[in-house]
Write a structure and sequence with these properties.
single chain; 172 residues; alpha/beta; Cobalt-precorrin-4 Transmethylase, domain 1; five-stranded parallel beta sheet; 8 helices; globular; membrane; lipid biosynthesis; glycerol metabolism; Diacylglycerol O-acyltransferase 2; lipid droplet
Length: 172
C-alpha cells in the first residue's frame, strides 16, 4: 500500500469527472475489522475504486484508523505491472486467503470492500436501473461471522448511470 499512489492528484480529477462523493453515516472503530458489502457493480466499479482504492474522497480523514482494501478478481494480479499498481492502491484479490489474512492476521482497523454482485451484476447495469445480485452470495456473511468482523452495507447511487450498455435477454 502506497499513500503516495493513493493520493495522486489525478484521482481528484477522476472523482470530479464522474462525480463521486463518500458520505459517512456512522463512525467505525479502528479496534474492529469490517467487510464492506458494496452495490451495485456498475460497468467498472468507479465509485468503489475512487472511494476505497484512492484518497480522492478523503476516506482516511473520514474514517481515521481504518485501512480499506478493495477486493478484485485474482486474475487481475497475474499481469506484472498491473499487479504492482493494484497492490500500491491497497487492492487485494477477492479470495478466501487474502480476506482471511486481512480480517484475522493483519491486526485491526481493516475494511475489506467486496463488490458482492460481481461481474454477474455488471451485466444488469443500465441508467435508471438498480438491480442487486445477492442470490447464492452468502460467503461474505459466513466469513464475517467466522472472523467476528462487522458487515457494513455500502450503496453507490448513480454507479449504473455512468455508462449505457446493451442489455441482453436472460439466457442469450
Amino acid at each position: 500500500r502506497s499513500s503516495w499512489v493513493r493520493s495522486w492528484t489525478m484521482w481528484t480529477y477522476f472523482r470530479d469527472y464522474f462525480p463521486i462523493r463518500l458520505i459517512k453515516t456512522h463512525n467505525l472503530l479502528p479496534s474492529r475489522n469490517y467487510i464492506f458489502g458494496y452495490h451495485p457493480h456498475g460497468v467498472l466499479c468507479f465509485g468503489a475504486f475512487c472511494n476505497f482504492g484512492t484518497e480522492a474522497t478523503g476516506f482516511s480523514k473520514k474514517f481515521p484508523g481504518i485501512k480499506p482494501s478493495l477486493a478484485t478478481l485474482a486474475g487481475n494480479f497475474r499481469m506484472p505491472v498491473l499487479r504492482d499498481y493494484l497492490m500500491s492502491g491497497g487492492i487485494c484479490p477477492v479470495n478466501r486467503n487474502s480476506i482471511d489474512y486481512l480480517l484475522s492476521r493483519n491486526g485491526t482497523g481493516n475494511a475489506v470492500v467486496i463488490v458482492i454482485g460481481g461481474a454477474a451484476e455488471s451485466l444488469h447495469c443500465a441508467p435508471g436501473m438498480n438491480t442487486v445480485t445477492l442470490k447464492r452470495r452468502k460467503g461474505f456473511v459466513r466469513l464475517a461471522l467466522q472472523k467476528g468482523s462487522d458487515l457494513v452495507p455500502v450503496y453507490s447511487f448513480g454507479e449504473n448511470d455512468a455508462y449505457k450498455q446493451v442489455i441482453f435477454e436472460e439466457g442469450t
